[in-house]
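Render this sequence as a predicted structure.
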Amino acid sequence: MVRRRLPPALRERDFALLWSATLGMRFAEQMLAVAVGWQVYAIRGNPLDLGLIGLAEFLPLPLLALPAGQLADRISRKLITAFGLLISAGIASALVVVTVHGARSVWPFFALAACSGVASAIGWPALGALTPELVPPELLPGAMALRSVAGQAAVVVGPAAGGLLFAAHPELVYIVGAAIFGCALACVLALRYESSVREVAGDAPPGLESLVAGVRFVLRSRMLLGAIALDLFAVLFGGATALLPVFARSILHVGPVGLGVLRTGPAVGALIAGVILARRPLRRRAGPTLLTVVAIYGVSIVVFGLSRWLPLSLAALAVGGFVDMISMNIRATTVALVTPNELRGRVNAVEMVFISASNELGAFESGVVASLVGTVTAVVAGGIATVAIALSWTRLFPALSRMGRLEDLRPDPVAAE
């Protein structure tokens, strides 16, 4: 009876396991992010250090993403995903050691952030390519929304849990995080689905043409390129997450628990949007909707930057999370539906570089600008830039602005070599 009440995609056994793994992985990541952010900022009180954490996470991605994407199109995507989770569990364990020894220097955190970037670079292309293979095409928009719901549900609870665990005992948050990564690893290994090399990549030997096939596909599809690039620039300039420790400590004065609560703000809005999309996938024209929600996201960031009242700050973050979830769902579903299966690993690798550039490199940009012009000025200016980008995208990517309903999208043909 309970099974019948679940969204259709969650009735698929393998997708339910993958969804559970995603939930656990994101929960652990968010707990660790709160603890690391608080410890790093407490060591020297410099917002640039928060930006350097983001830069360290990003640097491995341009080097490893394309080879990892090619690998995901040639060998078991399940095993690659599991290997990435194993690295993440090791990072959480190493953070226990760093914390037990006093966490008096920032360099161990930079080194482990780089290792986290390696884990993401290896695991994400395979993880992203699994979902379209575990559910039928008609369930894919709902499945993509559910995948995002898993991440955002973790963000709602994870940061607050991380803040509470850190306040109780700093190393406890990392111990719990390592255990959760282990549970996610078990869920992935329990998947019955296996893609053989022949099914995914055929018999063609790997080479430079194969390595860059995903890049060429994205550049050729202007609609896809516009959707991915819009997310890159919007979050690159409009992201404020990396600076939340500064707001919690020096502007809103709410402490580490308040920092966890602030990090849940976007997730609350995103979770609401994700549940709605999982039950009722977007039916209106996706292109104009995408441009509209990105502009609203920029406005919400401006409001957050100017706020000095915690409830208003949380409301602005929640609105930003709500519209950002709609944006992510449109982008992720577009990537999944227009990409042929034999290119999904490599196209997901390209998407991952764009997303990580907007998140990790965006964190570095936020830290640098905040150290130069001040935290509030950096956040407000970034929100204004996001609105301007959304307004300009109609001219730069007319194919995206004309994009119709997601359910009408079909895989684009692979260009002949």
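Summary. The mean pLDDT is 83. The CA atoms of residues 60 and 302 lie 31 Å apart.
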